[in-house]
Structure formats: structure tokens, C-alpha cells
């Protein structure tokens, strides 16, 4: 125990004091502090401290532009709600090339996109446009029949996200959806 005290002087600090310190650092630095220790991660991520800690000021929305002169056709655009310039790549050029890329949903800073690789193959991409990080989620056997796909993500609860494919109901006695 004495070795732990010597290696981490913050272990003696009460949680309330650490939260007060975290509340005074910029949002990005507070996010980096989550990597220091499990104690710091738990303090910063705890729902009771949400109002005290800094939040991302990135607020806006992505949309598609429909115009005769757009190149590539129907590119994505980003509009900041606060009116401030935002260093986001609205074209999502950091994502892999595809025949078609469509934004389907967003949730707590993550975007859900559907990527058409070729006419017979699709997959989902979940990305964070602020960090330019993304992961691929394979399509299911029902993906071509899906009416809607939604993204669920709460960074205060977990670092995992969930995709929900809403497939039309099958008529009674049928194995295939209509």
C-alpha cells in the first residue's frame, strides 16, 4: 500500500476535490484524464458529475446537399449550431471509398453510415467525425430488407454502441418479411 501512495500522490485526494479539479480543465483534457487510472475514469464518467465537468462545445448537424453542381454528387455538409467554425471534415473523406455513403443516424457524437461497397455488398460504419476514428459493422442477412437502422450510444454508461435494424414484420405463418 505504501508503494501505491508513493507512486500516485493523488490517491490521498478525496473524490470531490478531484472532480473540482477536472471541472476546471478543458473538455479534451478531461477526456484524456480518463486514461490515467480506473478511479479517474470512473469519476469523470459518473452520471452524478455530468453537470460539473466540461462538455464538448461541438454542436451542429450533418446534412446532404442536393445541387446540380455538386461533386461528388450529393456530398455531406456540416452546419454548426453555435455559428463557430468547426474543424470537422464534413465530407467524411477519412472513411473508406464506396459507391455510396449515406448517413443514417447519429447519437452522442457518433455517426452511423451505410456504405455500399458494390451493388451486392453493404456494411455499416460507425464513426466519430471529431476524432476521425471509425469501425466497420458487417451487415446482417436482413440488412437489404431493413426499413430503418438506428444507433444507440451513451458514453456516460458505456463505451459500447448498439445498432438496431428495424425489419418489417412477416405476415402470420410466413418465414420471410413482406
Outline the secondary-structure elements:
Elements lengths: L1 H6 L7 H8 L4 H7 L4 H8 L14 E5 L11 E5 L19 E8 L2 E9 L2 E8 L4 E6 L9 E6 L7 E6 L12
Antiparallel strand pairs: 1-2, 3-4, 4-5, 5-6, 7-8
Key words describing this protein structure:
4 helices, alpha+beta, 30% strand, 178 residues, single chain, 4-stranded antiparallel beta sheet, two-stranded antiparallel sheet
Describe what this molecule looks like in 3D.
With 178 residues, the chain is an alpha+beta fold. The chain folds into two domains: 2-49; 87-166. Helix content is 16%, strand content 30%. The protein has helices at 2-7, 15-22, 27-33, 38-45, and strands at 60-64, 76-80, 100-107, 110-118, 121-128, 133-138, 148-153, 161-166. The strands form three sheets. A four-stranded antiparallel β-sheet has the order 3-4-5-6, with no helix packed on it. Strands 1-2 form a two-stranded antiparallel sheet. A hairpin with a 2-residue loop joins strand 4 and strand 5.
